[in-house]
Amino acid sequence: MLNTGHDLVATLSSDVSTEAEIEESDRWYQRFVGGAMMTNVWEAVVLLLLPFLAPNAEGTQYSPPGKPALTRCRSPEKETFTCWWEPGSDGGLSTTYALYYRKENSETVYECPDYHTAGENSCFFNKNDTSIWVNYNITVVATNALGSSFSDPVDIDVVYIVKPNPPEELNVTIMEDKGWPYLRVSWKPPQKADTRSGWITLIYELRVKLEGEDDWEMHLAGQQKMFNIFSLRSGGSYHVQVRCKPDHGFWSEWSSADYIKVPDYFHREKSMWILITVFSTFIFLIFMCFLHMNSNRSLKYYILPPIPGPKIKGFDKQLLKNGKSDEIFCALVVPDFPPTTSSKCENLMVEYLEVYVSEEQELILEESKELHNSLKCEGSTSDNDSGRGSCDSHTLLMDKCGEAKGDERQTDGEGHPMEMEAQMHQRDWKEGTLSSAYQDIVSPDMSSGRVKTWPSVFSPLHQCGSTSLNQMNSLAMAKQHCLSDNLSPPGSASSFLPQSGRSTTETHRPNYCEFYSSDKQLSSPKPQAQTHRKLQAHSDINISHKQAGLQSPALRPTEYVEVQRVNKEDMVLLQPVESGCVCGDGCPQVCQDYSKVKGLNSDNMLLLHRDVMEGEEVRSHCEKQETNGCITSHITPATQKPTDCIPTVTPIVQKEMGLAVSGYVDTAAMLTLPTH
Amino acid sequence: MMTAVKQSGVWAVLLWPYLLAVSIPLDCRDEQGNMSRCPFISQEKLLDRIIQHAELISRISEESCSLFEELFVPFPLRLQRNTVGYACITKALPIPSSKSEIQQISDKWLLQSVLMLVQSWIEPLVYLQTTLDRYDNAPDVLLNKTKWVSEKLVSLEQGVVVLIRKMLDEGTLTTTYNEQDLLQYDVLPDMLESVMRDYTLLSCFKKDAHKMEIFLKLLKCRQTDKFNCA
């Protein structure tokens, strides 16, 4: 029977061809000897059924089972382990599987003690069957009616296949550290793992993520069973998981997640951010300020820009601050002018003229004796606020401010010389132009032409002046204000009234002499009532007087300006007189060129007559037309800003002034007064 | 794991003089018989330090084996981290190999097993040093590790000896060297064979180092809590 069975097995397993396989099958067959009875019965059954099975299987081929494969073996605690296998094809017949193992250094083959504890297709080795640090050689055999197949053997050592269970009792709580919360995570090792005795040493790892996000944050905890997580997002909800691994082995599965919600601590952060934002904005603004300031001017300029002050020459600004209008307007009138103490103003009728003399225009004025010089010449230079830039280079400047010799002049009714004192700035004169000259023009009929250079100012001034003038026989004082920064002390006999109001100006300021002419009509037709016409010539400081041959003004207290000619445009060209050039001193030319203005006729014509200069009597006349275009143009713009008016002095020369002889005054070219 | 190893390493390095000092009493008492000169260490502390030594040795041996495997062993021949291909030299030693067996043996036997293991590996590691030096491109890392391990093993032996003396009151130093001439000192003609032999050596040592560590830890557990330990 045995032989029959053996032969049957041999014939049935048609694929058993090799010797080894036959031996193997023999071996397995030997095992079956133990159950020989059953085997015989089984064989009989197979034999009986085979004829029935074979014809019934139409097209289905029964075959021995496919080759199984051991997939993995794992030990949870290094005391037991389990192996799983993957079955191959069963060949259409019911197949049984068996696991056999061998320990190292031993040839004894054992079969799996437990096929059920660990589930299907598994083999469980309990404590008694598990040896550590020992190699196991394991094989799985699949057997069906037609044959059996063997898997590849696998060698394992239990020590190296340990995969523990996940840690247990995961607990997450919120703790606080100085107001900042953090998570405290704690857990217990898996129950089966004997870490207490040191049989297994586990290291742990946990991961954290915010609810709703995908990225986990991993933390390695080592052998400790507690871990702190900082840097939490306020109000966030966190998931925490933990796993473990023995020193030689595999990582366990992640434990079940524990959820925790962090309370809000946002407000504390927010206040800090607000503070930071404010501070940084402040710093930014300061930085921008500095940048802007450094690019242009100084800080002082931005914070306290210079306030343009009143540019009234000879005007005390303090009066403006006091705020009394009467005082202000009265102050515009030079206190000494009209001179109340003397009668110098009596016969004076002064017109305030403003003259702008261009560079190429030179006025030659004949000084008239009648000029009453109660002019005050203040030498001052306008500051940069005067706005006289355009006039600068073309204006004549008479910047001599000396003492008013009004007394002398005013009292001299006739032929009161009028001097024009110009003091040229030593370093500022560029061109040889005449400084402004002024002359008093005696004309009883001044009222028709009222020169208003300072319209708003002059009218009250006028009134003031009228009051004083009334006192002084309603004589308008002609003032000449020549502003320069260097005022020479009045030395010469000039009719300049001392006038305060010298402004300290810087260099390169245009000097100008303001001629104030009031149209206050002096009733007195007497020569005393002379109208002072003052030419206000603005000239830039930069007007040099080299060409003119003028001496440095510092040396000479007074300078004369002579009217060279009058151009076709009815302008009086003034030429500064050489210093020291007094008639008779050797400047016969000059002397000859001087003309004297005799007077002003009703037609506003300047009456000149040739005269021989005599010393101090040489005067230059600054004539200013009452109603010349410049003046009007003066009036319209700001009072302190003479526009580019070129010398608008229209000389008024009478025909009978045969001054053309000297080339001094060209009668032909003169004089038509532009009527207004 | 690495931080634990580093900590252990630091501990071991720092405590190494102490361990040496501990082992000095052997000579102190013998030569001069003056116990006052020798530093005293408690049994618990000694056991702790021995365990730290063993842990560090196990860690470094595992790293050395992995490094060697990467560098010299062809991929098909690599062990699947599960077994040791060749028989280890210490297979003949009567060492318990399961937890149940370990639970049944006494402390004395536990210590004796450890001592046997340690002593049986001292010479092979020295041999391994010499063979690794013969390799053409063995990196210094590997050489340093194996050198360090062999040195530490010697100190571990000394510690265990002292511990045995303290715990078991056995005066004599049980030097049961493994007389088996398992190592063939002649150079094998085949390079691959030589590599595989060295590989086996390292793997076996890795396993035995782990054994030592476990035994010592179990011993410690028994010292503190006898009833709940393995």
Automatic annotation (TrEMBL), chain A:
Top-rank lineage group of the source organism: Eukaryota
Pfam families with a match to the protein in the record: EpoR_lig-bind
GO cellular component term, pick one: external side of plasma membrane
UniProt domain Fibronectin type-III: residue ranges: 64-165, 166-265
Database matches in InterPro entries: FN3_dom, Growth/epo_recpt_lig-bind, Long_hematopoietin_rcpt_CS
Protein's name according to its UniProt entry: Prolactin receptor
Membrane topology category: Single-pass type I membrane protein
Compositionally biased region (Polar residues): 486-504
Keywords of this entry: Disulfide bond, Glycoprotein, Membrane, Metal-binding, Receptor, Repeat, Signal, Transmembrane, Transmembrane helix, Zinc
Region of interest (Disordered), ranges: 486-510
Subcellular location: Membrane
Similarity section: Belongs to the type I cytokine receptor family. Type 1 subfamily.
Example GO molecular function: cytokine receptor activity
Main location: membrane
The UniProt record lists the keyword Signal: yes
Residues that span the membrane, as ranges: 272-291
From TrEMBL, chain B:
This protein's UniProt keywords: Disulfide bond, Glycoprotein, Hormone, Secreted, Signal
GO terms assigned for molecular function: growth hormone activity; growth hormone receptor binding
Entry GO terms, CC: extracellular space
UniProt superkingdom: Eukaryota
Gene Ontology terms: biological process: animal organ development; growth hormone receptor signaling pathway; positive regulation of growth; positive regulation of receptor signaling pathway via JAK-STAT; response to nutrient levels
The keyword Secreted is assigned to this record: yes
Chief place where the protein resides: secreted
Pfam families: Hormone_1
Compartmental location: Secreted
Organism: Solea senegalensis (Senegalese sole)
Keyword Metal-binding: no
Annotated family: Belongs to the somatotropin/prolactin family.
Source organism phylogeny: Eukaryota, Metazoa, Chordata, Craniata, Vertebrata
Protein name, UniProt field: Somatolactin
Signal peptide limits: 1-21
InterPro entries in the cross-refs: Somatotropin/Prolactin (IPR001400), Somatotropin_CS (IPR018116)
